[in-house]
Amino acid sequence: MKVNPDRLVAADFKVTDQELRNLMELRKTEAVTHIRNTYGDILEICERLQTSPKDGIRGTPTELVIRKSVFGENFIPPQKPKTFLELVWEALQDMTLFILEVAAIISLGLAFYQPSGGNIALCHTSESGGDEEEEKTDWIEGAAILLSVACVVLVTAFNDWSKEKQFRGLQRRIESEQKFTVIRKRQVIQVPVADLVVGDVALIKYGDLLPADGLLLQGHDLKIDESSLTGESDHVKKSLTKDPVLLSGTHVMEGSGKMVITAVGVNSQTGIILTLLGVGEDKGKTKQKGKEREKPSDSPDSVVVEKTRRKSSMKDSLPKKEKSVLQAKLTRLAVQIGKAGLMMSIITVIILIVSFLVRNFVINKNVWTAECTPVYIQYMVRYFIIGVTILVVAVPEGLPLAVTISLAYSVKKMMKDNNLVRHLDACETMGNATAICSDKTGTLTMNRMTVVQAFIGGKYYKVIPTPDSINSTTLNYLRKGIAVNCAYTSKILAPEKGGGLPRHIGNKTECALLGFLVELNQDYEAVRTKIPEEALYKVYTFNSDRKSMSTVLQKPDGSYQMFSKGASEILLKKCSRILNSYGRPELFTKQDNDYMMKNVIEPMASEGLRTICLAFKNFEDYYEPMWDDEDDILSDLTCIAIVGIEDPVRPEVPEAIRRCQKAGIVVRMITGDNINTARAIAIKCGILRSGENVCMTGHDFNKRIRNENGEIRQELIDKIWPSLRVLARSSPSDKYNLVQGIINSKIYEQRQVVAVTGDGTNDAPALKKADVGFAMGLAGTDVAKEASDIILTDDNFSSIVKAVMWGRNVYDSISKFLQFQLTVNVVAVVVAFTGACVTHNSPLKAVQMLWVNLIMDTFASLALATEKPTEALLKRKPYGRKKPLISRTMLKNILCHAFYQLVVVFVLLFVGEKILDVENGRTEPMQSPPTQHYTMVFNTFVMMQIFNEINARKIHGERNVFEGIFTNVIFCCVTVGTLIVQIIIVQIGGKPFSCTPLTLEQWLWSIFLGIGSLLWGQVIINIPDSFFWCLKEFGEGPSHREMFQTELAKTKAETDYGELSRSSQILWLRGVKRIQTQSRVVKAFRASAYDLEASDSNKTF
């Protein structure tokens, strides 16, 4: 049968997707036996799938369409998103809005209710004075409240809908950028994961997250982490004879290989499990099928699903990372303000009701009659509405919206700055970072490696030698050793443009060695053509323990030859011979090794070069060695050469590090390179600046942090980390121990907030442990990316500095919003409370306060949460975890601006009718038509908020509050838009908004008093903060113990939120829960759509 026919049709496939699904459910020897008995071997399966193990599929559009139609697409449909009506219903669940709705409906009912008989006028003589016509419009207030609630609900639902749509679009964009390496038409190419089809021959390597199920065609030292599917933590070794089954969602922890894809999308093992869990189905169907699945089953799928559920539930119940800095502070501030707001609203309602009862039944000696009951209840309902409205204004429930808008806006902008944020809270946590532990290669350096020095044939070359100066035998060893002992996916290609640099594809260190061959006029491709990858007998792939890579070839005579490359000081110790100038091996003693270290390796390293040793070994015996005994295999080597590889420091990095240090952030370099290389690069970058800074190897660090019993002790780490700046020749465990030690340290008052960069699979523990984990987008493995919070799409350290700026900007944006909103809160609550006590009526009506609340919440969120970061953010130290959210400067601004606004409002309220020559609104009954007096109070109050919003743009005592105002288009639009709507409300709103049109003079007075907020702000700046020493800062973060207990009770707390209606915490707890829900939306960033944990993300949708 001809493989890859030109005209492929569905009937050409001699195996069904169901047969392949059944095959992929088998494990180890069971799978091997089934393949042998049913198909003969894996090559026969390839033939039935019309693919070539060597050339892959043709990959024509027609062929791809046919393969997708027969075997399915590599796509798992997400759960159906919530409709707009569902989001509206969720918004209606807000307890405050619910109370307002009920109160408004009662008010409406009583307005239309006309009790029969009796003299209604006698029921409310002390409260009314409105005529019969006015009584016919009583319904307007209740209707206006319902209309306002409807506006709030629609705005909230629209915000949720747009956010969800934005995040889904972002998720699709991320998924579209995920690519995997396959062979098609003999060409090694990268295709989007979604375009993989059954029959594709895929190349897999260390660190990959497998996107589909497949069978192993060729493997070198291949070990897979299958814990995501089986729960087994041990790595599974894969081979053609023992276990060739590779499953989607699993991680390649070691080695490399090639596989033929046999199942994709919903037909893969991950897809089957997610389908059983209800991903991509409607809620009703999922629920119904869930009941069916409650029946016990012994199928492999049900066992895996049950393990997955148990694993998921364990993850949910165990404490995870601490809350983000901002979230922890907001949670505590939420409860504090919520209690105060509830207390004020209750007191206001009590005062209004008691004063009404005393005035009518004690002073006026009215009698409560049945016919008057509806009238009295109507007054009680109005008082209740006033109280609830005070609660609405007092509790800034718009804060969760401000947080979400600020984070979402920052995430979108950070993508342009090469920061792909996977977890929203990482954005603001980065603003509090006090330490950055960075890799060297690719992050601080350009990752454009070139061999610039070499020691060959007993001679040290400061520049690349000519081919004629190297013995031909040595040259042959170099050509063959580098060609076969570098991954075949690493290659040098011609420049894209004439005169440009050659393109480096694959591992950059290997590309440097291949480029070295090119400069020596050696054709490595000819060697690879003669010795294809399939002919390699065994490969010991590079890992952090070996710090070397070795490839074994079998000679025609049956003997073996091995080529090795790796860290020079490590590999040289395993060499017993070295090639001399004649290309012949000569004895290499310990004295020779010391000479090489002192006169070759150290001089190279001191210039910042990475030193690599190239060696080989001939196995003279014809019997097969014990390949698993690596100590014996990697011994008695013959050194071919030592090369020095230059990786220049990125030109922008020294300045970026200087900015970090100026911002109070300590930068540490953690690298696997030689200590002298690391020190030289650190000095060039500006990381090592003084004699107090320490540079040490991972071996020394590991020895110094352990006691005599070999146990790691925090007090020993505390002696090292404050001065440590460079950790060289470090392992992933060294990185993890350092990060954990810095985070757990208590030698400083503030807990350290640590950011870590990583690219390798073994960096995952440190990335997860760090407060913010940065994975490399270009050089990083899938495992590292999955463990990270932010992906650097350009692998550049300067992008981390931009993340710091955006993080601090988020923190400041929330502080600006708080400063503005709490000022309005204080004034609105005090005015409403005073009005209730003195005039027995609130000067600011319920609908007016809902409008003010809308200004504070949605509009202010948009205006203040979308400020762009400036360099000034890097001129201060990090806030830290314990620093209060409301600083003394902010408290001074809040109280002083509130004082100004209260003075203006009370002057207008109590003597405004004389100043403005208008009717006295205080003496007007509750049901009387709107007055210019109270309209003036309301209008001036709103004008002061509009201009105070400009003041709120600066929270650190800056004098120029207009700086950069025109760079924020949203702020300008919101300010102008609010002013226009206010004009419409006052001039046209009428009875529904309790307003009557104002004259031009009255408008000018309102605007003048509003502008006074700006002038008063300049006065406040001149008042020293020390004058307010008695003010207590609040909104500080909880202690370590409180945070730990909160995390343990997290699941329980979420389920209890709906039952806290009696508590003042209800609104804020719902708000905080909303933040958490919105953060969970972005769990789409945490893993690819093919990871099992994606099911958790889909639940959010």
Task: Produce the secondary structure layout.
Layout (H helix, E strand, L loop, with lengths): L16 H8 L3 H11 L3 H7 L12 H11 L12 H9 L2 H18 L19 H4 L3 H39 L1 E6 L2 E6 L8 E5 L7 E13 L1 H4 L5 E2 L7 E2 L4 E13 L5 H8 L6 H11 L6 H18 L7 H39 L9 H22 L4 H18 L2 E3 L2 H7 L4 E4 L11 E7 L2 E3 L10 H13 L6 E3 L9 E3 L2 H12 L4 H7 L7 E3 L7 E7 L5 E8 H4 L3 E5 L5 E3 L2 H17 L3 E10 L10 H4 L3 E10 L6 H10 L3 E5 L4 H11 L8 E4 H7 L9 H5 L5 E5 L3 H13 L9 E5 L5 H6 L2 E5 L5 H6 L2 E3 L4 H42 L7 H19 L23 H29 L15 H20 L17 H20 L11 H22 L18 H9 L1 H7 L9 H16 L12 H7 L1
Parallel strand pairs: 9-21, 9-24, 17-20, 21-23, 22-23, 24-25, 25-26
Antiparallel strand pairs: 1-2, 1-3, 3-7, 4-5, 4-6, 4-7, 8-26, 10-11, 10-20, 12-13, 14-15, 15-16, 16-19, 17-18, 19-20
Helix pairs in contact: 5-8, 6-8, 6-14, 8-31, 10-12, 13-14, 13-30, 13-38, 14-30, 14-31, 15-16, 15-30, 15-31, 15-38, 16-30, 17-18, 17-19, 21-24, 30-31, 30-32, 31-34, 32-33, 32-35, 33-34, 33-35
Describe the structure.
This protein is of the alpha+beta class and 1101 residues long. Helix content is 49%, strand content 13%. The strands form four sheets. Strands 10, 11, 14, 15, 16, 17, 18, 19 and 20 form a nine-stranded mixed sheet that branches. An eight-stranded mixed sheet has the order 8-26-25-24-9-21-23-22, sandwiched between helices. Helix 28 links the parallel strand 24 (754-758) and strand 25. Helix 31 runs antiparallel to helix 34 (969-988). The longest helix is centred in the last third of the chain and has 42 residues, at 797-838.
